[in-house]
């Protein structure tokens, strides 16, 4: 394993052990629940949007290490972002998780979220990693329940 892969592994383990922004958000303006029946992950994403800016974003639920780490990374990444930048991040993570190319141009914009790129080598885990992001995307569209299948 390269040093970079070690670092990515470390980031994911850390977010799994100490999930950021985990818990309820009573003042949420948008929320959605995502289910991944393949793995049994169940993640609820809550956002407080104000003037087209994500002021708060939290998550709740149960899931495997990848789904929790991804949700945690997502909350740290989206907080404080404008809606346009949030949509951009959704596109970038989708590309990161599904692209078979070696070069991912969006990588630089994703910060620690880039740690999830190793997941693409394990197709069965891609849905774990994308679950929270799909839920957040759906929440902003006014959908409250999603299933990744
Ligand atoms: Zn999972």
Name the descriptors.
149 residues, alpha+beta, 42% helix, globular
- The first-to-last residue Cα distance is 31 Å
Can you tell me the residue ranges where pLDDT is under 50 for at least 5 consecutive residues?
none
CATH fold call: Sufe protein. Chain: A
What is the N-to-C order of secondary-structure elements (H for helix, E for strand)? HEEEHHHE
Describe this protein's structure.
The structure is a single chain. Helices cover 42% and strands 20% of the residues. The chain is α+β, with helices and mostly antiparallel strands and 149 residues long. Strand 2 (41-50) and strand 3 (53-62) form a beta hairpin. Helix 1 packs across helix 2 and helix 2 packs parallel to helix 4. The mean pLDDT is 93. It binds zinc ion.
Q: Briefly, what is this?
A:
The protein is an alpha+beta fold. It has helices at 3-17, 65-78, 83-98, 123-140, and strands at residues 30-36, 41-50, 53-62, 145-147. The model has no long low-confidence stretch (mean pLDDT 93).
Write the layout of secondary structure elements.
Blueprint: H1 3-17, E1 30-36, E2 41-50, E3 53-62, H2 65-78, H3 83-98, H4 123-140, E4 145-147
Parallel strand pairs: 1-4
Antiparallel strand pairs: 1-2, 2-3
Helix pairs in contact: 1-2, 2-4, 3-4
The chain binds zinc ion.
